[in-house]
Every structure is written in C-alpha cells, then in structure tokens.
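Ticket #4471: structure export looks truncated?
Reporter: QA, pipeline team
Priority: medium

Steps to reproduce: submit the single chain below to the structure queue and open the exported record.
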Amino acid sequence: MMQKAILIPPFAIALLISCHSGNTIDTRSIATDLPTIAKGQASFAKNCSSCHKSRQEAFGPSLKGLTTTVSVDWIKNFIKDPKTVIESGDERAQRLIVKYNELMPSFSHLPDGEINEIIAFLNTQKAPDEQATE
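Actual output as written to the record:
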C-alpha cells in the first residue's frame, strides 16, 4: 500500500510555529525611528517615570523588556484603561494588582500617537537578560 505525502506550504508551517511557540510577540508595528523614540522617552519621563523606574521596581514594575513579553495591543489597552483590563480577568493584570496593591491611573487622555511613541521608547528598553545576549 502506497502512502501519499502531504505537502504543507512554507507560510503555513511558519504560521503554525509562531502560533504555538507561545512567546513570540510581534513588534513590527512599533516605530524604530529616533525622533519617535525621543518623543516617547520625553512622554515616558513626564507621565510614567514617577511610578516606573528603569533599574528597579517602584510603585509599579520596571518596564524593561515589556514589549517582548506582551503584545502592543495589551500595552495600549492597559495604558488607556488598566481597570477594565484587570476586571476582564486578564491573568497578567490580575497578578500586577495583587503584587503592587495599587491601581495604575488611566491615561485615556493621551492620544494614540503619544501612546505609540511611549511604546517605541519602551521597545528600546531591553530586559537585563536580553542585553546580555546582544
């Protein structure tokens, strides 16, 4: 009895691998140009740095490496309305509220462009273990 080979197109294999790897975060939508990153750094300093320190945890966690652990959409949603993300039952958000016992204020007043700039800056802030491998 002859067996037939099943051919799977390469794009389908790549899709299956990325869907099942569990730790692949798509950062292609994050701006990488220096002017955007600089604007994001300034906005981060103004809006975020009082609670989020780069070298240590403060009122909130250090955000180094954040863009490699959660999606851009998750970050945007959490910045705009952390209470809704927590109340949705999101596991990460639940852990954060338990650990810090403090609700991050909503930044829904920030325009999407400014949030994207902050995310562009955060994308340059690598986690300590990421820096060692570069």
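Status: closed, not a bug. The export was complete when the record was re-opened. Leaving a note from the reviewer for reference: The domain at 28-125 is CATH 1.10.760.10 (Cytochrome Bc1 Complex; Chain D, domain 2).
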